[in-house]
Structure formats: C-alpha cells, structure tokens
Amino acid sequence: MKRFALTLLTTAIASTAIAPIAFAAPDIDQLRRENLDKDAVSIDEIRRENLEKAGKVDIDQLRRENLEKDAVSYDYLQLKGVDIDELRRENLDKDAVSIDQLRRENLEKDAIAYPAQ
Predict the structure, then answer these.
(1) What is the model's pTM?
(2) 36 touches 46 (CB < 8 A)
(3) Where are the domains of the chain?
C-alpha cells in the first residue's frame, strides 16, 4: 500500500510539474510564420522601385556597351599573326610561382630571425 501511495504521489507531483511546461511551450511554426510575415519583402517591388529611382536603366544596353568596349577579336589577332596560345603561355609563366623557391626563402628568413642556439 505504501508503494502504491508513493507511486501515486510521485506521479501527481511529476504531472503538476510538467503540465505547465507543456502548455507554456511556444508554437515554433507559428512564431516562424509571424516573423516571415513581418519581414516579407517583395523582390519585384524592390526591383521596380530601383528602376524608377535610376531612371529606368536598361541593364542589357549597358552590358552590350561594356562588351563592345572591351571586346577583343581573336580572329583579327590571328590574322595579324599573333599566336594566342603563345601569349597565354607567357602570361601563365609570368604569374607562375615556385613553391619550393618560396619555401627556401622563408626558411632562410627564419634561420636569420631565429638562429640556432
């Protein structure tokens, strides 16, 4: 009888302690929806506003103008006798870094800065 009463008492205490927590738990999905509704932004609306502010800039026209400014005719260069592949190799050689050479230089600098005792 004592065990039954003790079990019943423990169950009652646990349920009274857990029940308020269960009811107080926020509905995460509802909170998420509310936050999304508050911060909802219409990308199309922002795009229209920006176009109105900028005087309706034609992005495609600007892109074409920029392409025309920087356009390089590889066919024209080849007709002039320029070897495009050779130019590409020269540019790669200019930027090539010897990792071993850099490592040796750094080791030499460290040897000067931290001489062996």
Answers:
(1) 0.24
(2) no
(3) 83-117
